[in-house]
Amino acid sequence: MLVQKLRLQYGWSQQQLAELSGLSVRTIQRIERGMPASTETLKSLASIFEIDFNQLSSEQPDMNSNDTARGLKHSPEEMLAFAHVRKLKAFYKQLMTYVVVIGAMVIANMFYMPHAWAGWKYLPNWWVAWPALIWGFSLLVWASALFDVLPFLGPDWEKRQVEKRLGRPL
Q1: Cβ(82)–Cβ(40) under 8 Å?
Q2: pLDDT digits (tens, 9 = 90+) for 108-131
Q3: Helix axes 14-21, 25-32, angle to 10 degrees
Q4: What's this model's pTM, rounded to 2 decimal places?
């Protein structure tokens, strides 16, 4: 996760870092998720960031420990923030996909079934509404969880439920 922190401090995208380091974007993504990297990969990244190789290699997860994805250079708040930003990015990608796909489906519905737009009596031929509603509802549920819209299902509720199951405070 130090790689992600450094990349963000430099203001680079994963694509830009991949181009500068000669690595693939997929490799950068794996390293940022806490997966182990080869020595050559770490040396390449260390030279790009102009830091000592040992700083990156000391962060590498120990595959024999239970803390394989725990970064050594990050506070718990930073790790939570990175995780939240990754979830937020995934949500926005899904939202953009929804807009593009549903938009294309509306256009297809208009061209292949133009009478469906003529009035309410043709509403059963308006097939694009069903995937738009179902997918849209799932996006609303995801957004409500991501943006803490439903406060009764927030962190306090989770803590109470865990304590209830354990029968003791955390």
Answers
A1: no
A2: 888 877 665 555 555 557 788 889
A3: 110
A4: 0.55
